[in-house]
Amino acid sequence: MDTESVSPPNAASPDTAQLAEQRWQAVVRRDVLADGEFVYAVRTTGVYCRPSCPSRAAKRENVTFYETGDLAAAAGYRPCKRCQPDAPSQQQTRSVLVRQACQAIERSATPPSLVQLAQQAGMSPYHFQRVFKAVAGLSPKAYHKALQARRVAASLQSAPSVTAAIYDAGFNSTGRFYEVAPALLGMPPDSYRKGGAGEHIRYTVEPCVLGWVVVAATRKGICAIEFSDEPQALADRIQTRFPQAQFELADDAFKGWVARVLDYLEQPRGVLDLPLDVQGTVFQHRVWQALQAIPAGQTASYGEIAERIGQPKAHRAVAHACACNPVAVAIPCHRAVRADGSLAGYRWGVVRKSALLRRERGK
């Protein structure tokens, strides 16, 4: 009997051929990012496993997929003792540890060192740095800088001067702050201090294949494309960024831009050519232009991008410019990877980065 042509008892729903193939490829890759999305059961062994199970690969014809372990158990399968599919996944465990580290950073006037954070998580500093970036999308140091930016954003509304707000937030260099401020605040500090006064903003929050997306634009072009699991968080972010701006109703041009973003997320092919209004340093704009030149479905390492802009030793600065990108997909920073081809952090989560690359490659 063909096991794929008959719906197994108690399965959540019959797998479509495409979904079944995607899940099978995740099993073949032992993809930890797929853990928690489904389990697979092996008819010949009578066990069910998480996608990343390191056990010997099963034959495709003996595998059936289930949405949860409970459904697999109800069909008569038992959990694998090796991968323990009903226990929290490695990804979930890491998320908890990173969340605790973020809270430690937020509570401290002076940020904990990487060594201190790693000890708290029970990891080596090198391993913890990689885990933190994979989960949070940026390093602990960059997370602290982003926290400083949020604090200075609040202080800019009440401090007697921009300089006072910068030092109140813990920056020890005005030059360093002015380098990163436009991308973090969405506008120059003086404009942010005025609450976006004089800006004319249109924005919308829409459901998409990656959760929720906010698209915002000035009269010049798109100024923000961001993702989240919470739609209200995206709306609040735009309102907070531009408290004194004049919010306008969406016109036909803006609706067309939004439609192109949503269509591109559904079928990411070619170039998402939109007018952009993004703030950044000269170096950041050079990196963003290099990112836009990477074809859909392909990637480039931070070192390769650094070479393309004529600064081969600036791979760390390239990674930072990617983290400051305010317009996801329009500037495709998800196509930047480590030198070994593995995924680095992503401002909106490495899971979304992986999903974008898979969709671009038609998987």
- Overall structural class, as computed from helix and strand content, comes to alpha/beta
Strand content range: 5-15%
Instruction: Give the strand order, joined by hyphens, for the main sheet.
Output: 3-1-2-4
According to CATH, the homologous superfamily of the largest domain is: Winged helix-like DNA-binding domain superfamily/Winged helix DNA-binding domain
- The amount of helix comes to 40-55%
| Cα-based radius of gyration, to the nearest Å | 23 Å
Mean pLDDT: 81
Counting DSSP E segments of at least 2 residues, the number of strands comes to 10
Word description of this protein:
The chain has 363 residues and is an alpha/beta fold. The protein has three domains: 17-79, DNA Methylphosphotriester Repair Domain, CATH 3.40.10.10; 90-193, Arc Repressor Mutant, subunit A; 200-360, Winged helix-like DNA-binding domain superfamily/Winged helix DNA-binding domain (Arc Repressor Mutant, subunit A). 44% of the residues lie in helices and 12% in strands. The protein has 15 helices and ten strands. It has helices at residues 17-29, 69-74, 90-107, 114-121, 125-136, 140-155, 162-168, 174-185, 189-193, 231-241, 252-266, 282-292, 302-308, 315-323, 350-360; strands spanning 39-42, 47-49, 63-66, 78-79, 200-208, 211-217, 222-228, 246-247, 300-301, 336-337. Helix 3 packs across helix 5 (125-136) and helix 3 packs across helix 6 (140-155). The longest helix is centred in the first third of the chain and has 18 residues, at 90-107. The chain starts with 16 loop residues before the first helix and ends with a helix. Residues 1-15 have low confidence and may be disordered.
